[in-house]
Amino acid sequence: LPEYAFIGRSNVGKSSLINMLTGRKALAKTSATPGKTQLINHFLINDNWHLVDLPGYGYAKVSKSTKNTFQKFITAYFEKREQMICAFVLVDSRHSPQKIDMEFMQWLGEHQVPFCIIFTKSDKLKSKELDLKIENYEAEMLKTWVEMPQYFVTSANTGMGQEEILSYIEEINKNLKLR
Ligand code: GDP
Asked: Ligand 1 test: best mutation among 11, 29, 89, most atoms within 8 Å of CB?
């Protein structure tokens, strides 16, 4: 089955987003303690694709060896990725582009891994601020990329972006079947 990977810095809102996408509250436990998602979890969605929950990266308070272990996990996953269709890189809507995210997307690009960007926690910004943040992010991306990748603006609190992401994935799955 096709796999779609979800990844981002710890505390970016990944567990909340996964819960929102799957509509199952108990599926991925959210926690106020960053760095809690430590293993790669697969969730079967609609019996036709797997949501892959990758460990959060870049949490400052984990040790170097923990960081390296995470990195190895993630690298190994993407290097095998036989069924991996697209990686969703989560970034916090409120933050300006972070070096670690930029570097990670660079790495995905170099390894020809298709990816999208998901802006999380958009409910925390007023709509004008949100637009500015996205514009700013896009401008930063365009310094190194020819075009802005496909992106989704989301909120786990309001459900914003849920439909868009799910139909994006289903659309790809449909085309995969036709191939
Ligand atoms: P993870 O470490 O990336 O899995 O992040 P979590 O999903 O555990 O979320 C980290 C914190 O951000 C928690 O306190 C969540 O309640 C909060 N959070 C996550 N998503 C949203 C969102 O869309 N809106 C708001 N306001 N808070 C969020």
From this structure: 11
